[in-house]
Amino acid sequence: MKLLGAENSPEVQQLLIEQFSATATTIGGPPEIAVDRHVELAKILRDEHQYRIFGFVVAVHYPTRVKEATEAGEVIRVSYGLRSVGKGTRLASWQLCVPVGQSVPTLVYLFAGADWQEREQYDLVGVRFDGHPDLRRLMLSEDWQGHPLRKDYAIDTKVHPWR
Amino acid sequence: MEMTSSVARGRRRANPYLDLESYDPEADLMVLNLGPQHPSTHGVFRLKLYLDGEIIVKVVPFVGYLHRGVEKLCEKLTMVQLVPIFDKNDYVSPMMNEQSLVMAFEALLGVEVPRRARYLRTVLAELQRIASHLLWLGAFAMDLGGALGGGATLFMYCFRERELILDVFEELTGCRFHYNTHIIGGNRHDVPAGWAAKVHSALNVIEPRLSEYESFLIVNDIYIERTRGVGIVDGALAMELGITGPVLRAGGVDHDLRRDAPYHCYDEIDVRVATAEAGDCEARASVRIAEMRESIRLVRALIDGIPEGPLGARKPIKTPLAEKATEGHSYAAVESPRGELGVYVVGGGDNRGASPYRLKIRSPSLHVLGCLPYILPGHSVSDAVAVLGSVDPIMGEVDR
Amino acid sequence: MNPWLRGLLYALLITNVFLTITAWSIWFERKFSGRMQSRLGPTFYGPWGLLQPVVDGIKLIQKESLIPASADKLLFVVAPPLTVVLALGTAAVIPFSSDIIAADLDIGVLYLLALGSLTIIPVWMSGWSSNNKYAMLGAMRAVAQGVSYEIPLVLASLVPVVLAGSMSLSDIVRFQIKNGWFAFWPPGPGFFAFLFFLPASLAEANRIPFDIPEAESELIAGVSTEYTGMGFGLLYLAEYLHTLVISAVASVLFFGGWDGPFAPGLHWMVLKTLGLFAGIFWVRWSLVRFRSDQLMSICWRYLVPGGLILVMSAGLWVHFTRGGG
């Protein structure tokens, strides 16, 4: 369970495995943990391990037809990354797997930067974030239908008035 | 003459979700849209300001006017084809975009980059940093002083200097601006004869002129009045928002990917990182100018010692389907002039793995723009423009 | 000569000369600023681009003059010509040489200051009648700035009046011819009065560093946002005209008008006016602008008390050197 190029440090890896029962995924990427525990993980990383710089949120859509899909069917995998400050900076990353339609608890109350990042992933992939104060589209216009970065959204979908 | 202003300095962290009814039932709030078409918003970007007189009460930024669906495009094009597309994200410092992209692909594919290429990438990154900061300086002066005034003068001078660096890049890659010079495993264009001498002559012109610009703008009392104490982003807010780069360093946090997580050849040289304490516009400007000087010093130290060897782990690739990655996630980040520019790649997409399954660009400017609702309330409209100029957002990478 | 005929001839003469100089001052500014910025400026129309103002004028005249539907039509249309008229009106009392003066008023300085303060009104009219938030912000800033900087302007202009003992501009020049230019003698009040006069009049004319009402990087084009065609042309022209008039008034009040080390006459007046004019452009292309509250604080905290002290010191000088008056 690795994020190539930005692996977790051994302490974080140990924390993930021991305290959060992180597992490797069949498709690679950072360790996967349970969805409802990730806010707790972020808090521990921020306060005790000095991962104070908000890194990224990436949501990836896996429809059932893709060979990497799990038995759960159509899922969205959300990867988070936090960066530590100063010398020897490392990235701490983890992955969540939610069935489409289920939502992920938001990190906004720990990291203000999660606000726009989560809005963007909602806008483009369609994963909802529980507890987000203002979850609306960021990049696309308010009345856009569909979530473009899903695999069932064709790249040349007609959208009036742009096509 | 110490001139102080009577405008209330905003609290360092305003409430971005302020409920306007509860703000003041008597106040007659005016809504002013700064943008999307506006001479000073650094690209198409809408800032909805709620004004009480001239003081900003609430800020709601709207981005996405330049959204071109680059991430979706990445799933269609193959890894080999993506490099020129990426030039157009942070269109002011294209070398950084290319470097972060190819580094992410190299991590995904497990490709080792030869030393000559890594060394050349370091030199190109530092030259690009100088060029990007010169553009920032000109645009910042224009924001402060207007396109018809002292700002325009400094703008012209900075662009004249920037042309020297772009000439150097043209000598190397054939393109003044969007280079397509990085490939997976190395660089495409090799250093021509006499290139190092050209770089030296360009830097010898730029360095004394930087001192001239400092005496023109930075020590000017009017400039100091406009930028001191304006738009304070303290280190804690910056870290929470994910802001990196000069804005974070101006808030007092000593964090620079070049020194702390060295990539390319940064572990062979000593990068002196500039920080400031105040976190206001003046601090950000001084950090960027110090970075320019530091980059000049680094390039001078590096340019004569480019090692011999192959320029790429593989020969330049002619077919789009040549590189395939069927699984794995990777992330690579560079220190761009705006902060940590990262690319997160999920392998195993179309074309039997030649395209990424998902590619996310972690752009520093998007995080930086997130600070506006927190720091602008309490300032006036002129300050909003000065702050926007000093945080240097590039809408190409905000919206992708 | 019939005073009506004389007045008409002078009006035509001054209007034409000033407007011509103003039109070519646009060429001069573009060339001057271009050379300062290591670029060429206009070169295409005519030798050295000298026909550029003609071409610009033709372009502006043939453009469609749009009046926004929700604008106050009368004020919108009247404001630009009114600005030009007021700026030209101040030129009526300026003595260009000992015989060339359109109206040798006894209260010349008072007339100048009165018209100068009236120029705020068309600026405000254009901003308010546009019914546009940016123009409105610009107009409010212009009124605040103009009204505040009236006071240092009046105080600075009072110093030559007190020193010369008369409000008539030609009397002030004659006094300077006998006793030395006010900018240099008496050492002190005159020089500082000039130093106060210049920023105050730049603020009246909305020039950088005081051009917050038309700050392009913040307010698109400030009060002239909604203007197109010749309306915009007139507002633009009025700004240069106002600057030219300020240079002329400053050279009369502080630099001796038509006086010179040899052969006094019109040419010295022209030289001084154009020299100050170029200096104002130089300042424009070198400095960034103030924020409105900083502008106000400079005016009320530094220029107004300083101006009062200056006027008092001028009065004391007159009292002690001429024994009352």
Broad structural category of chain A: alpha+beta
The CATH homology group name of chain A: NADH:ubiquinone oxidoreductase Nqo5 subunit
* Domains of chain A (count): 1
Beta-strand level of the residues of chain C, as a percent range?
under 5%
Distance between the termini of chain A: 42 Å
Q: How many domains of chain C, as an integer? A: 1
The total count of strands of chain C amounts to 0
Report the span from N to C terminus of chain C.
Answer: 36 Å
* Fraction of residues in H or I helices of chain A: 10-25%
Oligomer: heterotrimer
Note the run of SSEs of chain A as H and E.
Answer: HHEEEEHE
C-alpha geometry of chain C: globular
- Low-confidence region ranges of chain A: none
Helix content of chain C: 55-70%
Mean pLDDT value of chain C: 84
**Largest sheet entry of chain C:** none
Query: What is the strand tally of chain A?
Result: 5
Report on the biggest sheet of chain A.
Answer: 3 strands, antiparallel
The SSE order of chain C reads: HHHHHHHHHHHH
List keywords for this structure.
B: 400 residues; mainly alpha; Cytochrome-c3 Hydrogenase, chain B; 3-stranded antiparallel β-sheet; disordered N terminus; C: 325 residues; globular
Brief summary of the model shown:
The complex is a heterotrimer of chains A (163), B (400) and C (325). By secondary structure, chain A is an alpha+beta fold. Chain A is 21% helix and 20% strand.
What would you note in describing this structure?
The complex is a heterotrimer of chains A (163), B (400) and C (325). Chain A is of the alpha+beta class and 163 residues long. Chain A has one domain (10-130): NADH:ubiquinone oxidoreductase Nqo5 subunit (Beta Polymerase, domain 2, 2-Layer Sandwich). Chain A has helices at residues 10-20, 38-48, 114-125; strands spanning 53-62, 75-83, 91-99, 104-105, 129-130. Chain A has a 3-stranded antiparallel β-sheet. Chain A has a two-stranded parallel ribbon with strand order 4-5. In chain A, strand 4 (104-105), helix 3 (114-125) and strand 5 form a beta-alpha-beta unit. Chain B has 400 residues and is mainly alpha-helical. Residues 1-11 of chain B have low confidence and may be disordered. Chain B has one domain (70-399): Cytochrome-c3 Hydrogenase, chain B. Chain B has helices spanning 20-23, 70-76, 82-86, 94-109, 115-145, 150-173, 195-218, 221-227, 235-241, 246-250, 257-260, 281-302, 350-353, 364-369, 372-375, 381-391, 395-399; strands at residues 30-34, 46-52, 55-62, 182-183, 186-187, 329-336, 339-346, 358-362. In chain B, strand 2 (46-52) and strand 3 (55-62) form a beta hairpin. In chain B, the strands form 3 sheets. In chain B, strands 1-2-3 form a 3-stranded antiparallel β-sheet. In chain B, strands 6-7-8 form a 3-stranded antiparallel β-sheet. Chain B has a two-stranded antiparallel sheet with strand order 4-5. In chain C, helix 3 packs antiparallel against helix 4 (108-118). Chain C is mainly alpha-helical. Chain C has one domain (68-322). Helix content of chain C is 68%, strand content 0%. The longest helix of chain C is centred in the N-terminal third of the chain and has 34 residues, at 3-36. The chains are: A alpha+beta (163), B mainly alpha (400), C mainly alpha (325). At the A-B interface, strand 1, strand 2 and helix 3 of A face helix 2, helix 4, helix 9, helix 11 and strand 6 of B.
